[in-house]
Amino acid sequence: MKKSMRIIVSVLLLLTTVFSLAGCGEIKKAERTVNDTFTALKALDFETASEFINIQDVMKTDDSDEPVDLENNVFLENIFDKLEYEIISSEKIDKNTVIVRTKITAVDMAPVLQDFLTEALQYAFANAFADPPVSDEEMNKKMEEIFVGCINKEDLTTVTNEVDIKVVKVDKVWKIEVADELSDALLGGFKKAAEEISDSLGETE
Predict the structure, then answer these.
(1) What's the farthest any 2 CA atoms get from each other in the chain?
(2) How far apart are CA 126 and CA 138, in angstroms?
(3) Is 139 inside any structural domain?
(4) Which of 16, 102, 129, 167 is most exposed, with minimal Cβ within 10 Å?
(5) What CATH number is attached to the domain comprising 25?
(6) 120 belongs to a structural domain
């Protein structure tokens, strides 16, 4: 009888270990997905990053569902290469879902956009009556130059958020689900800052 009990206890311990290891395996895969995603984003390797996260969802706003051109995108290139992150903890929800709590640090886009708006308006007013008039191509190029200058100034402030990143297994591949909280952290609060500027301009019209 004692021998049988020892066998049962041993089997139960073995099963507990197996299930524990299985859970750890899923957590490691989810954390690897987060690591690979951020590594790709920081390297501006959008092709690789798109295997794990829908960048279009990160950029999507309520106003527009138009896809973002990821090639030669000055905006994304100058935001993502400055990202910093740290995985704090992970929790397995079920066999297909893991929550990876991650600390994300990005450039605070609110003051950057304020600087950009000031310089962009100055340029627009200075060239409002240029002869010949500034072409759309020249204007777009100048706006890009102004933005790059603003986001690469010294002593830029940063914003840090702790985000619960939901990583789910889809067709045997672990992928990140984009939520507003994650999008906001990745973009340094860009969407909120842009909305506030838009609202303030609307109030003055």
Answers:
(1) 101
(2) 14
(3) no
(4) 129
(5) 3.10.450
(6) no
Q: How many domains does the chain have?
A: 1
Give the C-alpha distances (Å, rounded to integers) separating 95 from 14, 23, 37.
Answer: 19, 8, 21
pTM > 0.70? yes
CA-derived radius of gyration, the chain: 24
List CB contacts of 105: < 8 A, sequence separation 6 or more.
Answer: 83, 84, 85, 158, 159, 160
The verdict on residue 63 lying in a domain is: yes
Give the residue numbers spanning the domain of 19. 2-108+157-204
H-only helix segments in the chain: 2-42, 46-49, 55-59, 74-80, 109-126, 136-151, 180-186, 190-204
Distance of CA 113 to the CA centre of its chain: 18
Kindly report, residue by residue over 16-39, the tens digit of the pLDDT. 444 444 455 889 999 999 999 999
Report in angstroms the alpha-carbon separations of 133 from 128, 130, 136, 159, 178.
8, 5, 9, 39, 42
Query: What proportion of the chain, given as a percentage, has pLDDT over 90?
Result: 61
C-alpha–C-alpha distance, residues 51 and 43, integer Å: 14
